[in-house]
UniProtKB/TrEMBL annotation:
GO terms for molecular function: guanyl-nucleotide exchange factor activity. Transmembrane segments: none annotated. InterPro entries: DBL_dom_sf, DH_dom, PKHG5/7. This is DH domain-containing protein. GO terms for biological process: endothelial cell migration; Rho protein signal transduction. Coiled coil: none annotated. Residues 1-49 are annotated as: Disordered. Pfam families: RhoGEF (PF00621). Residues 34-49 have a biased composition (Basic and acidic residues). Residues 172-356 form the DH domain. It comes from Maylandia zebra (zebra mbuna).
Length: 356
């Protein structure tokens, strides 16, 4: 009951006790109060009387809610909402981390770019050193006696005057001896290219700070020593035979090769070391070609050089081994076309020598 109603009741009691009889106003007030009480009673009674019904309604409501929560549709909607909320949260986290990720990518890209720029700069410097490398216009060997023009005639027929009257056997013998002479000088010239172009360019790169990890010995072992031995062999054995034919116009004499071939092991001792390290040198070069851009650039420059005689690096490294194993074949070709018994005997002795 509110304050307005409670204020009316004391006043009504006071009037009734004091006067004995009720006035029309007082009667009206009492009726009003009684009406209020009756309405309040009527309002509360259904809650008391229908208490069991109210409890039953609450029970039904809970059962309906339980059924609703346990349905598949509700559970799907709930899971979908949770998934959406989680996805929204993930997007928020990803969006928040995006600037940091972008910053890492920028820094990483900048590092890679700087490294690539430095590598390009070093590669350009290496190329400049190679392009600036200079050497003689003619790398062919000229020994003391050869001071003019070409070092060797085009054919043995330019030297031997009786070539037109020779038998077929004699001609084949002279051709085999000429091949011995010609291929020996050709081999020396190829070794000169390797020494004066390939090795010298590598040394030039070392002086400028490039390709320090690659040494001439790792590519060609003791090849310069082999070159010196063949130059001496030419001067002391091959050239005297050539010079005698030039002076006399007579056929090449195979007996002039005997002293040099019998002393072969002494004259060419450097081959033992070269052949022993040849496989390691080839493997080292292969790895460098696969993993070292500076080395592959250097090799490409060497192989394309106008004075490189179109040799590949592998060909250069194989030249000594190929030459040393060719001597028995050259001597057998001479022996095959020789009919003079004493000369045959001497040639057989040269062929039997172990050249490797």
């Amino acid at each position: 009951m509110d304050s307005a109603k409670s204020s009316l009741i004391p006043n009504a009691q006071h009037v009734n006790n004091g006067g004995g009889s009720e006035s029309p106003m007082e009667e009206t007030v009492l009726q009003t109060v009684d009406g209020e009480r009756q309405r309040e009673t009527e309002t509360r009674e259904p809650d008391v009387v229908d208490g069991k019904a109210a409890d039953l309604n609450i029970h039904h409501k809970r059962a309906e809610d339980k059924h609703k929560y346990s349905t598949i549709g509700y559970q799907r909607r709930t899971k979908q909402k949770v998934a959406n909320d989680f996805g929204t949260l993930s997007k928020g986290t990803s969006a928040g981390a995006k600037p940091r990720t972008a910053l890492k990518q920028v820094l990483f890209s900048q590092g890679v770019s700087d490294k690539a720029s430095e590598e390009r700069s070093q590669l350009d410097g290496l190329k400049q050193v190679l392009e600036a490398f200079s050497l003689s216009e003619d790398l062919r060997w000229r020994w003391n006696e050869e001071s003019q023009g070409t070092t060797l005639e085009t054919s043995w027929t330019d030297i031997v005057q009786s070539h037109s009257t020779m038998s077929k056997m004699q001609r084949h013998q002279q051709e085999a001896l000429w091949e011995f002479v010609y291929t020996e000088l050709t081999f020396i010239n190829k070794l000169l290219i390797i020494k004066d172009l390939v090795i010298a360019a590598l040394v030039q790169l070392h002086q400028k700070g490039f390709l320090q990890e690659v040494t001439p010995e790792q590519l060609f072992s003791n090849l310069p020593s082999i070159l010196e031995e063949h130059q001496q062999f030419w001067q002391e054995v091959v050239y005297p035979m050539l010079q005698e034919a030039r002076k006399t116009g007579k056929p090449f004499d195979p007996m002039r090769l005997d002293p040099g071939c019998l002393q072969f092991h002494k004259r060419f001792s450097s081959y033992h070391e070269y052949c022993l390290k040849e496989e390691d040198n080839l493997e080292f070069s292969r790895r460098q070609m696969e993993n070292n851009l500076h080395f592959s650039t250097y090799v490409q420059w060497v192989e394309n050089h106008p004075q490189g005689d179109r040799m590949r690096l592998g060909d250069m490294q194989a030249k000594p081994h190929q030459r040393i194993t060719k001597y028995p074949l050259l001597l057998k070709a001479v022996l095959k076309h020789t009919q003079d018994p004493p000369v045959e005997h001497t040639l057989r002795g040269m062929v039997r020598i172990r050249y490797l």
